[in-house]
């Protein structure tokens, strides 16, 4: 067995730990650990998924034309420049596979999403971590870290798990300042939660070194189906389509996602409900002595005095049947990431944290 070894870098990948969903011996568990939509998936998406059962023996279409057309109409984008993947995770993977290899550097930020490092290592490239400023993307630090070997720069905007974001001016400054061989990837997994934010579409229209990734896992409530997409320069999209498996998305996933993206009223309602209860939750926690940064997505990053207090609060919440996310793996051991649920869920988690703070 010792003669058979994986490619360099592969064994440096730590296995991904997802948000937990069960607690031993607890009924009525409240899962606020994976940034899922508390309202579930929109009804038209559920119906489309059920209709797909008739065609289970058929291969799915390989060009994803229907879904790309729908995305293009809804977001005013050119469908030819859209590529669909098994979650946006797969688009991130395609980008690393196609553009980064041994000797190349892939920049991600200090508290950036785990998949950037994982996909960079899987491609044999070198991940480069850049510090953030007060849990926020630091454009100057990224530009200072860029080298002639930098091939990809990943920014989640809004970022997970910090929930902060940077403005269009800073994004443009970043795109303009990168060396010519580097591609800027704007991960817009939470873009729909930000009123009026185009996720970088205008930047992509004006430049040839910017790509966005998007997902159906968050506001569309389809995390279980695994559908995401990317948008960027035609050459980049054509390149990603070469490494994409021809049947990467199932018919059921394609049909449900197409129905979901066309349900604009759903997105608007979810955005509004989320903003209302997110801001309520953050304000309530602040009253309890648990501060957080201005949250722009569907979660709040609650800050505690230190790691011991954060872990003790997490233990208390588990005792109350509530699962939130520890983020020590994201270099934030004194924080807990709490997904914004519906009204009852927000009240329940705030009440439990109040018990914890009161009992100390
Ligand atoms: C949740 C999330 C995604 C979505 O991943 P999918 O593979 O589309 O489910 C992407 N990026 C970030 C930063 C996320 O938090």
From TrEMBL:
CDD domains: AAT_like (cd00609)
Involved pathway(s): Amino-acid biosynthesis; L-histidine biosynthesis; L-histidine from 5-phospho-alpha-D-ribose 1-diphosphate: step 7/9
Claim: ATP-binding is one of the keywords in the record: no
UniProt KW Amino-acid biosynthesis keyword: yes
Annotated InterPro entries: Aminotransferase_I/II_large, HisP_aminotrans, HistidinolP_aminotransfase, PyrdxlP-dep_Trfase, PyrdxlP-dep_Trfase_major, PyrdxlP-dep_Trfase_small
Modified residues (N6-(pyridoxal phosphate)lysine): 218
Catalytic activity: L-histidinol phosphate + 2-oxoglutarate = 3-(imidazol-4-yl)-2-oxopropyl phosphate + L-glutamate
Transmembrane regions listed in the UniProt entry: none
GO molecular function: histidinol-phosphate transaminase activity; pyridoxal phosphate binding
Cofactor(s) listed in the protein's UniProt record: pyridoxal 5'-phosphate
Broad EC category: transferase
Keywords, alphabetical: Amino-acid biosynthesis, Aminotransferase, Histidine biosynthesis, Pyridoxal phosphate, Transferase
Pfam families: Aminotran_1_2
Superkingdom per UniProt: Bacteria
EC annotation from Swiss-Prot or TrEMBL: 2.6.1.9
Gene Ontology terms describing biological process: L-histidine biosynthetic process
Residue stretches making up the Aminotransferase class I/classII large domain: 28-353
Family: Belongs to the class-II pyridoxal-phosphate-dependent aminotransferase family. Histidinol-phosphate aminotransferase subfamily.
Subunit structure: Homodimer.
HAMAP family: HisC_aminotrans_2 (MF_01023)
Protein name according to UniProt: Histidinol-phosphate aminotransferase
Gene (UniProt): hisC
């Amino acid at each position: 067995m010792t003669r058979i070894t994986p490619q360099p870098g592969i064994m440096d990948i730590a296995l991904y730990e997802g948000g937990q969903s069960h607690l031993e011996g607890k009924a009525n568990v409240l899962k606020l650990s994976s940034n899922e939509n508390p309202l579930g998936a929109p009804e038209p998406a559920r119906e489309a998924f059920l209709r797909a059962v008739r065609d289970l023996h058929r291969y799915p279409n390989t060009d994803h034309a229907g879904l790309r057309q729908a995305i293009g109409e809804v977001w005013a984008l050119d469908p030819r420049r859209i590529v669909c993947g098994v979650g946006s995770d797969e688009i991130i993977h395609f980008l690393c596979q196609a553009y980064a290899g041994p000797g190349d550097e892939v920049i991600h930020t200090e508290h950036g999403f785990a998949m950037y490092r994982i996909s960079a290592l899987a491609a044999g490239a070198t991940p480069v971590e850049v510090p953030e400023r007060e849990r926020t993307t630091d454009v100057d630090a990224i530009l200072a870290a860029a080298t002639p070997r930098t091939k990809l720069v990943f920014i989640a905007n809004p970022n997970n798990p910090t929930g902060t974001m940077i403005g269009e001016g800073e994004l443009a400054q970043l795109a303009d300042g990168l060396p010519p061989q580097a591609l800027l990837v704007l991960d817009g997994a939470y873009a729909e939660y930000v009123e009026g934010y185009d996720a970088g579409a205008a930047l992509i229209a004006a430049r040839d070194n910017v790509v966005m990734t998007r997902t159906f896992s968050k506001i569309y409530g389809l995390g279980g189906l695994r559908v995401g997409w990317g948008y960027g320069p035609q050459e980049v999209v054509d390149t990603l389509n070469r490494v994409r498996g021809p049947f990467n998305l199932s018919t059921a996933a394609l049909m449900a996602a197409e129905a979901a993206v066309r349900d604009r009223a759903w997105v608007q309602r979810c955005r509004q409900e989320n903003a209302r209860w997110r801001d309520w939750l953050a304000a309530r926690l602040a009253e309890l002595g648990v501060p957080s940064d201005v949250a722009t997505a569907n979660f709040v990053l609650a800050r505690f005095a230190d790691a011991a207090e954060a872990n003790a609060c997490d233990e208390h919440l588990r005792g109350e049947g509530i699962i939130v996310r520890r983020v020590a793996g994201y270099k934030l051991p004194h924080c807990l990431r709490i997904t914004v649920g519906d009204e009852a869920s927000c009240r329940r988690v705030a009440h439990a944290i109040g018990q914890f703070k009161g009992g100390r």
